[in-house]
Design a protein that fits this description.
Blueprint lengths: L6 H12 L12 E6 L4 E5 L12 H11 L5 E7 L10 H10 L4 E5 L6 E4 H4 L6 H5 L3
Parallel strand pairs: 3-4
Antiparallel strand pairs: 1-2, 1-3, 4-5
Protein name: Cytidine deaminase
GO molecular function: cytidine deaminase activity
Keywords: Hydrolase, Metal-binding, Zinc
């Protein structure tokens, strides 16, 4: 089964996810929408914590939610930030996304007209992932 990436739908879902963000400290509401290999779209938002290190980003929330629902592979992620220019995923999110789709398409959108279109392998070249552990044995 070939899945086409509907970026308009993913963008709407990412923006909708941002409305559920819990951001009492930063006021930086981020939303993410991932497209799984079986065609499902799963949303995530950032969830802050008074102990700042325990905050979870939107991309990781989406991945963890999708995995909890049984998905195995991600084809694409769209990230919305409430900024004038798009913001790519942070390093921690890049690593977690790599676990489920090292070649996934990545789009970052914002309140302005600019868009970042790239791939995870471009954002995280030479990534450490499952293949490294399996080849160690």
């Amino acid at each position: 089964m070939t899945i086409t990436i509907d970026w308009d739908t993913l963008a709407r879902e990412a923006r909708a996810a941002a409305r559920h963000a819990y951001v009492p400290y930063s006021r930086f509401a981020v939303g993410a929408a991932i497209l799984t290999a079986d065609g499902r779209i799963v949303r995530g938002c950032n969830v802050e914590n008074a102990s700042f290190g325990l905050t979870n980003c939107a991309e990781r929330t989406a991945i963890f939610s999708a995995r909890a629902a049984g998905m195995d592979e991600v084809l694409a992620v769209c990230i919305y930030t409430p900024t004038d220019v798009p913001t790519p995923p942070c390093g921690a999110c890049r690593q977690v996304l790599n676990e489920f789709g090292p070649d996934m398409a990545v789009r970052a959108i914002c309140n302005g007209p600019d868009i970042i279109d790239t791939t995870l392998s471009q954002l995280l070249p030479g990534a450490f992932g499952p293949k490294n552990l399996h080849d160690a044995g």
